[in-house]
Amino acid sequence: MTAVHPGGPVIALHSVGVRREGTVVLEAVDWSVQPAERWVILGPNGSGKTTLLTLAGARLWPSSGTVEILGSRLGKVDVRTLRPRISLVSGSVTRQLRPDLPARDVVVSGRHGALETWWHTYSDEDWAEADRLLDEAGFAAIADRPFGVISEGERQQVLLARALISEPELLLLDEPAAGLDLGARERLVSRLGVVAADTASPTMVLVTHHCEEIPPAFTHAGLMRQGKLMASGPLEEVLTSSLVSSCFDVPVTVGHRDGRWWSRAG
Questions:
Q1: What is the DSSP string of 76-127?
Q2: Rounded to two decimals, what is the model's pTM?
């Protein structure tokens, strides 16, 4: 993995608004992410979490305000040079990949952000790195299995390895644990915790609905509600019962034990 982005914030949003067909999706969002920070963004459905992540991935332009990613301002940078420095784990990537592509090929294709391995030439070192990432996650056994027939939990591990092989400066994860069973979720959260604890890993931003999906070693949190970032900062300051209750509009008790967060309504 590459060293994290040096000098200045990795993500800087100033008074950002996003409107789609007259509907306000984000409003007056100020957000700054520093190198080596690991962020989780929580909020109810429709609160603007994925839109925020799409801006951070340089795949959406704001309707108002400014967005700076890795030192470059959207609208003044060629995104073709910026996007390769950012990796995204998302359901949208899953839907673009050919189902009969072997898991190992899916991983190595991430070196150039491609969807097919025949688009580029890969070195022996590239293939060895793909094998290493799968083995490190404990999934070497599925390397030759088609992406379309492995389990959803295995797919998420493959997508994470695919994101890491490009040595990004910014890693974005859009609800990677959605739909996973308990075992698959815990294996993914554990793997993300290992990645987050590695000082050589990129800056990370994870979107989720659930406190239980926050990996160990994450440092900061943001709470989204009705298109606004209602709270942001160190995890311990943001993930309070009061703030989370206000965010989800339901009484919630939030706790932290043995490096993991939990929440309970009522």
A1: SS-HHHHGGGEEEE-HHHHHHS-TTSBHHHHHHHGGGT-SSGGGS---HHHH
A2: 0.92
